[in-house]
Amino acid sequence: MRLGILSDTHDHLKRTSRAVQMLRDAGAEALVHCGDLTGTDIVFACAVGLPVWYVYGNNDADAVSELHLAMTDAGATCLEWGGLFELSGKSIGLTHGHMDTDMRRIMAAQPNYLFSGHSHLREDRRAGPTRRINPGALHRAPEYTVALLDLETDELSFLTVPKSKLFQ
Fold it and tell me: Among 20, 93, 94, 139, which is least packed, fewest CB within 10 Å?
């Protein structure tokens, strides 16, 4: 199972749609969004016939109700501010990364993976038994990136989304 990972899209619809298409072209079979969607259009841009999990980010606080309704309408899974789920026999934690309480709660469960965003910088590191991955961001980042993780082989790749004016 190849999992596409996005974060910090900040309502950049064209750029997000381009990133989702890149992930699909690279073989993504499911998606996670690590928060800071900031608009319901992003929910539907990610919900393109693949299973998708979302969490809220610090910039989503004013739109939680609308985002939750959009996620329900899109048939997606909303883990609110952070949560755990299983996919391909792996335990996965998902949070935005801005609230220490959520990070600690999820890390205490020692999932195989913890995906988060917030920093707008891609990252791949180990913390005990947990591999922590930040896919980067599609807004205010040195380069716009998303990530693709093969849950069977543990192979991770970062994809760079072009900064073309076409995808603003």
Answer: 139
- Mean pLDDT over each residue of the chain, to the nearest integer: 96
**pTM for this entry:** 0.95
End-to-end CA distance of the chain: 30
Work out the number of other CB atoms within 10 angstroms of the CB of residue 52: 22
Q: Phi and psi of 78, rounded to 5°?
A: -105, 120
Q: What is the pLDDT of residues 79-126, one digit of tens each?
A: 999 999 999 999 999 999 999 999 999 999 999 999 999 999 999 999
Q: Where do the domains of the chain lie, and which CATH numbers do they carry?
A: 2-167 (3.60.21.10)
Judge whether 146 and 133 are in contact, CB under 8 Å.
no
Q: Is 106 exposed, middle or buried (0-12, 13-18, 19+ CB in 10 A)?
A: buried
How many of the other CB atoms lie within 10 Å of CB of 129?
Answer: 9
Query: Do residues 154 and 142 lie in contact, with contact meaning Cβ atoms separated by under 8 Å?
Result: no
**pLDDT on residue 168:** 52
pLDDT at 167 over 80: no
Closest CA to 155 of 99, 113, 102: 113
Cα–Cα distances in angstroms (integers) from residue 128 to residues 21, 73, 117, 139, in the given order: 33, 37, 19, 30
